[in-house]
Amino acid sequence: MEFTKEKARIAYYNEEGIMLAEITFPAVNKNTVNINHTFVDESLRGQGIAGKLMQAAAQYLDESGKKVLPTCSYAVGWFAKHPEYSHLLIDGSEE
């Protein structure tokens, strides 16, 4: 499964070009993004797609030198389960 990386989101499109999964992370400021939305189409749920999207986003944002403010409940839970990416999280004073 290949994801399409865009400026403020990573998405999965099927062969017909229909978006079936995405994670969005608009900029808060120059150095910080807000992971505010995760979506997986009903047809793909239960296959770990949201976790793969989060992994791809975390790697992409880490490579981009960005900090993360997760407000999406899925993203908050994912970061809690993946402490290896805790260095990406802002502490609140950096907003």
UniProtKB/TrEMBL annotation:
Per the record, a Pfam family?
A: Acetyltransf_CG
A Gene Ontology molecular function term for this protein is: transferase activity
Which SUPFAM superfamilies does this UniProt record tie to the protein?
Acyl-CoA N-acyltransferases (Nat)
InterPro entries membership: Acyl_CoA_acyltransferase, Gcn5-rel_NAT, GNAT_YJDJ
- In this chain the N-acetyltransferase domain maps to 2-90
Give the protein name, as stated in the record: N-acetyltransferase
Q: Which organism is it from?
A: Blautia pseudococcoides
